[in-house]
Amino acid sequence: xxMGGRISYEFLMTFCVxxxxxxxxxxxxxxxxxxxxxxxxxxLLFGHEIATDTAGINVEPAGFIKAAELYNWRxxxxxxxxxxxxxxxxxxxxxxxADAILDAARSEQPTIDGVLLGLHGAMATEDDFDAEGLLxxxxxxxxxxxxxxxxxxxxxxxxxxxxxANADILCAYRTYPHVDQIATVLRAADLLERTLQGEISPYxxxxxxxxxTGLDHGRTTTENPMTQLLAEADVLEARxxxxxxxxxxxxxxxxxxxxxxxxxxxxxxxxxxxxAVMADHFMDYAWAQRHFDSNRYLSVDxxxxxxxxxxxxxxxxxxxxxxxxxxxxxxxxxxxxDSTFLLKGLLDSKITNAAFATIYDxxxxxxxxxxxxxAEVSLFIGGKTDPKFGxxxxxxxxxxxxxxxxxxxxxxYARGSWQNLGPLVVLNIAGIDVLIASHCxxxxxxxxxxxxxxxxxxxxxxxxxxxxxxxxxxxxxASQLLIVDCGALASExxxxxxxxxxxxxxxxxxxx
Length: 512
Description:
single chain; 512 residues; alpha/beta; 2 domains; 9-stranded mixed β-sheet; 14 helices; globular
């Protein structure tokens, strides 16, 4: 382990810690690659600008800074990068992000005492579908076996053997919707500090089962196998001082990776067979509860039937909007965000006083922007990436508003961050305000609507492209939630996806 207690000109520093944040959930079945521009549209920061631009935001780099203040660390800031889930990350984007960490490790190697990284755990590049495992192995080769590496992970990480072999400490989120990014960093940082002080010698192991899905997709907003196991983890950690942390990951099923799927990692003070037995206990329960799903998925037709029943009786007495989540076309899972099936269902059902966010269609945005606010227009929208998931829809409407699509997120999911939908147009189509965006982004915030002059609280129906994260901001205002599976890329029906690398047989593709 590197020597601590170095002196800088300004502060007395105990340890020097290399930090970096790269987060991307990659749907390897997507035909839309994730480029450097996609990171720039979300977050792409380097070096000293990281501390300034992430201050006060609920993201991992802000947690690194809090940890440094708590433990008097000197931080080496490298990169803070995230992009909306999509297809494999291009070589250019990966090199730009990963090299920021690896180059710093090379140049600062003599001064580095420890490493604290924020990674997703389900990132894939065009050349390697286990991008985090690759990065950690390269970093370990540069720093040697004695520099402790602590990593935070998204709750939907596909934790691989290569990741475990090259990291000493793994800490995953414990909330979905994710609201504990900084808390997760601080848990990992505590263990890293104790390691640097020589108090503990962390050892991490992983367990899986022959399952691609499970743990109720990691949801923590209801009583389910995920929350039950997390509660048990809390009890076990409090009881055993050698048990440092337990991380449960639901995995990400749209990454065609051999070791994709739910897992548990246990980080303990030293290697002990008892923790392998404990990990098996957790995964045995996950396997036994593999069929549990707290969502009720509706087809578009079934959703419209429920709306027709609910709205005439309650339209004047709704305590809030009926919120519909277009689960299968969620950009947050790598779907294309331009499926038109749900929008067509709403229009055919003559639903009014509604708002829909978003249809990803930069070409339509340009057409509508050229037409101008107030213009009456007819055009095709959506369905341009892969029409089998919802073909282009011919509509007529009025351009109600045009914005730059940029706003600060004020909900609990990523409070303080700025979301960028690119140039955006609100097109009113027969009583539905449809937000058409230039960037493909999951809808998680009320500000998506309010920045465009729409108050979602007074609408009868709000439809949005999301799977679970929307709950943090929208569930408090909703009178009812409906989850729609329209059959798009992130559909619950994964049997049609052409897996080539996944271990087989596996649940639910081959096993009951």
